[in-house]
């Protein structure tokens, strides 16, 4: 598989975050307010332009109202067992 920042796991993560934000009836702006950041940061994360680390995932998940472990479990289902870094 060619190297890309848009791995199957990264794509799954962004889709999950967008879906869960919308399920929580939050706009990007309202999520940004909860995170105390700019809406443009939320947009970059959701578009895959900016990757997040595990601590940021926990903070974002809590702001959306979903357990971070649930997000990780859903991503784990998508990432092939032989995926490389």
Short description:
The chain is mainly α.
| Total E-strand runs | 0
Q: Based on the coordinates given, report the CATH architecture.
A: Orthogonal Bundle
Average pLDDT figure? 93
- Class per helix and strand makeup: mainly alpha
Please, what is the oligomeric state? single chain
The unreliable regions are: none
| Beta-strand share of residues | under 5%
What is the CATH third-level topology name? 434 Repressor (Amino-terminal Domain)
Number of domains: 1
| Level-1 CATH class name | Mainly Alpha
Query: How helix-rich are the residues, as a percent range?
Result: 55-70%
Q: So, the CATH homologous superfamily?
A: lambda repressor-like DNA-binding domains
Main β-sheet, in a few words?
A: none
SSE series:
HHHHH
Q: How far apart lie the N and C ends?
A: 10 Å
Number of helices: 5
Radius of gyration: 13 Å
What coarse outline follows from CA principal-axis ratios?
A: globular
Protein name: Helix-turn-helix transcriptional regulator
Pfam families: HTH_3 (PF01381)
Domain HTH cro/C1-type: 17-71
Organism: Sulfitobacter faviae
């Amino acid at each position: 598989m060619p190297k890309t920042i848009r791995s199957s796991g990264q794509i799954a993560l962004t889709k999950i975050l967008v879906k869960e934000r919308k399920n929580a009836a939050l706009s990007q702006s309202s999520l940004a307010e909860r995170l105390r950041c700019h809406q443009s940061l939320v947009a970059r994360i959701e578009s895959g332009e900016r990757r997040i680390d595990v601590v940021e995932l926990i903070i974002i998940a809590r702001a959306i109202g979903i357990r971070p472990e649930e997000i990780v479990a859903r991503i784990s289902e998508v990432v092939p067992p032989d995926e490389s870094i």
